[in-house]
Write a structure and sequence with these properties.
Blueprint (H helix, E strand, L loop, with lengths): L8 E3 L2 E3 L1 E7 L7 E2 L18 E6 L10 E9 L3 E9 L2 E2 L11 E9 L7 E3 L5 E7 L41 E5 L9 E4 L2 H13 L7 H7 L3 E5 L5 E6 L3 E9 L5 E9 L6 E8 L14 E3 L8 E3 L4 E6 L3 H5 L4 E12 L12 E7 L5 E4 L11 E2 L10 E6 L1 H9 L7 E6 L1 H4 L5 E3 L2 E2 L2 E2 L1 E9 L2
Antiparallel strand pairs: 1-2, 3-4, 3-31, 5-19, 5-21, 6-7, 6-15, 7-14, 7-18, 8-17, 9-13, 9-16, 10-15, 11-12, 11-14, 16-17, 20-28, 21-27, 22-26, 22-31, 23-24, 23-25, 23-27, 29-30
Organism: Sphingobacterium suaedae
InterPro entries: DUF4270
Protein name: DUF4270 family protein
């Protein structure tokens, strides 16, 4: 049994009676207590407070230089469609004209490799199609500005970037396409044959020493980049490493008279200009209106349903309207505090869930300005997913809240703040990891458990 629910405990070998408050989402929970006293320690007969919950859409999600090209489309039950297209600039690994004079052009190919995690999200049993387009508009970073003067930017915005909501023009006619059946655990590469005309053009420019291929800067002014775009009927999203290759393949006769093959290679030379464009469609779900213009939906309007989703920037908001008043009682001493979130989603789902969650601290305007740190440390606290151990049970994420309660009690900066539950930063910007929270009686199963001593 969890030690929060033990009926008694000893401190320094003398019995002290403990009071437990359990706060459920949008629900007042009564206190369980023991009878009796010991020395100057006593118990209260009743104390309770409410946890308010909402689902929130974050803004200004940076998606450049994550190391992962996200490409695909998936439909998530109760959350709608998500889609990712990846844009990138390419440059020569070697701009020198080292192609033999007698060489002839063969083909142009884009080679993609799965990222280290072999990330996928969605139904991989269906055939998928990826199109490669030529970008016609220069990829540019931007620095977002606050909606109002003197308002801070989200803590995860650290400077200029390309953000997931940005989109750049590309030629509607694909340079090439690939239709494939995913074999996530075994496929090492995908090779997409690109336009023969483009390949011949690039080959001729190199052989002739054209100024457009004399430097990567000149080349990127001429060829602004590529975009990987999923077919509308796709059912899964895949993560590819940004160490892709664009190969200009050619052949020539060697000195021995035998045919030889080689390739001039282009790669992503500046990861600042590789980013993932993220879009979503929540039509027909309880979250249909959730967007940057309607950034919050209370769980009272969604039958208690709330979730977190990376990539699209969906987080669960928690607020504790009576917490500070409770903490101001000078006759209590907090011994332990934990936030326990039950997940209705599990690790075996094709819609991958976060392996760990973190908490943003959002100011009264709803802008996440800091993170919940590790107890008495400076690092971001991460709550790992713990399976229930039962086939039908809910997994949990558990946060140590002792420092947060101390800050709420003693620091006015924490007045009227709230917590945003989100995927950890390693997955927040380059996955679609999704976790729905369990519900009970139309309310999320989220509890703030506080173990404390009450003094007379």
């Amino acid at each position: 049994m969890n030690q929060f629910f033990k009926r008694s405990i000893n401190f320094f070998t003398i019995p002290i009676f403990l009071l437990l408050i359990v706060a459920g989402c949008d629900k007042d929970m009564s206190v369980t207590l023991d009878n009796g006293t010991a020395g100057n320690v006593g118990v209260s007969t009743l104390d309770s407070f409410t946890v308010n919950t909402s689902t929130v859409q974050l803004t200004h999600m940076p998606s450049a230089a994550t190391g992962t090209l996200l490409v695909g489309k998936a439909t998530v039950p109760n959350a709608g469609e998500v889609m990712a297209s990846s844009y990138f600039r390419i440059g020569f690994s070697n701009v020198a004209n080292d192609i033999p004079a007698a060489a002839v052009f063969d083909s142009l190919n884009l080679v993609l490799k799965p990222n280290r995690a072999r990330y996928y999200f969605g139904d991989t049993t269906q055939i998928q199609t990826i199109h490669v387009h030529r970008v016609t508009q220069a990829l540019e970073t931007k620095t977002p500005t606050p909606s109002f003067p003197n308002q801070p930017l989200p803590v995860y915005v650290t400077g200029a970037s390309i953000f997931s909501g940005q989109q750049f023009n590309y030629d509607n006619t694909p340079l090439g396409s690939l239709t494939f059946r995913p074999r996530v655990s075994s496929v090492d590469t995908l090779s997409i044959k690109l336009s023969q005309a483009l390949g011949q053009n690039l080959f001729d420019l190199i052989k002739s020493g054209d100024v457009r291929v004399s430097s990567n800067e000149n080349f990127q002014n001429y060829f602004k980049g590529m975009a990987l775009v999923p077919e509308a009927g796709n059912s899964a999203v895949f993560g590819f490493t940004d160490t892709l290759q664009v190969k200009i393949n050619y052949s020539y006769l060697g000195a021995d008279g035998n045919k030889r093959t080689a390739a001039k290679e282009l790669n992503i030379t500046d990861r600042t200009y590789q980013y993932n464009h993220i879009s979503y469609d929540r039509a027909g779900t309880a979250f249909e209106s959730l967007s940057t213009t309607t950034p919050e939906i209370k769980t009272t309007a969604t039958a208690g349903l709330t979730y977190v989703q990376s990539g699209t920037g969906v987080v669960a908001k928690l607020s504790f309207p009576s917490l500070k008043e409770f903490l101001q009682d000078e006759n209590i001493a907090i011994n332990k505090a934990e936030l326990v979130i039950e997940s209705a989603s599990n690790m075996n789902s094709v819609y991958g869930i976060p392996g760990s969650l973190m908490l943003f601290v959002a100011n009264p305007e709803g802008i996440p300005t800091s993170f919940l740190t590790t107890p008495y440390g400076t690092g971001v606290q991460q709550a790992a997913y713990v399976p229930s151990g039962q086939v039908t049970g809910n997994g949990t994420y558990t946060f140590n809240m002792i420092v947060y309660l101390k800050n709420v009690k003693s620091t006015s900066v924490y007045d009227n703040t709230s917590l945003y539950v989100a995927d950890v930063s390693s997955g927040l910007f380059n996955t679609f990891n999704t976790a729905f929270f369990a519900t009970e009686n139309g309310k999320p199963k989220i509890k703030l458990n506080i173990l404390y001593t009450k003094f007379k």
